[in-house]
Write the structure tokens for this entry.
Amino acid sequence: MEGPPKAANVARGAAEEILRIIYGDDLEGCTVSLDRITEVIAAALAGHGQVTQAIADLHRKGYEAIQLLSSPPPDGQALGADELRSLLGERLDKIQSLTAKVIAATKVEQEFPPSSDQTSESTGDATA
């Protein structure tokens, strides 16, 4: 299980850096627990990791479904023109529906990162 220790190390390193930025290298005057800041950052990373994993699973399942829908009918089944047209129409409808769901889920995930306004304010680049 390499995942959690790496996330914990990243969270702790970020917490240390945040406190150094706020209080300076000596952390003089800091009354905030490094462990508490680490917990907050670790929770944020875990939440983001869960969303990312869910999106990856949705993509994988979507590709598997598209692969199944794009395969020809089972051997030995002779379809007439109308039956084939109907089958292809149903499959294309399912592919479009699945694609819409994946796109919608991806858009929701993209709403989680901070906006560019917040980033520019923190770096002093805001023009106000």
About this structure: The CA atoms of residues 16 and 91 lie 53 Å apart.
